[in-house]
Sequence to fold (189 residues):
Amino acid sequence: MSDKESRLGLSAFVTVTAIDRRIQVNVDSDYMAQISELDGCYALKSNVPAVVADSRAIHDRYKDLAMVESAFRTCKTSHLEVRPVFVRTEANTRGHVLVVMLAYILVRQLKQAWREIDLTVEEGLAELDRISAMELSLSGTETLLRIPEPSPLARELLGAVKVNLPAALPKSKVVVDTKKKLVSERKRI
Fold:
């Protein structure tokens, strides 16, 4: 039985004995009480000398790892979507990751600016995505884009980042379509 105890990590506080056809399990309650005092505690081991960083600094840097892990999770999965990276050269890969890192900096800034508003950055961006423009023609010659009044929540989000929307924009002749496939314009291998 001691082999199973060791593999399950029980050998420190559980003793299992088999006598005849009976199995007896004894739990060391004193040891369990001592261990329970450490519930939720952890120990950090570092090779950094104490003169370079004290225990508080090491603890704080360890906690910063959670922010780094969150950043990578945000870049890989949510609205930044760093992968899959379909680039062929090192320069293009570096450029793509740079753009994603800049986007992450924006996400951090938005999170900081919107901390008083009860929304995630993704929910805030979805709310701002509802802002649109209407094309207006004045006397048949001049065309402009009129921006309707945003919702109260969108105004609050824009106010938190100190953005003032103009009432109208000049109409550009440039056609922008982000959903268009550019297969004919890509390089062939």
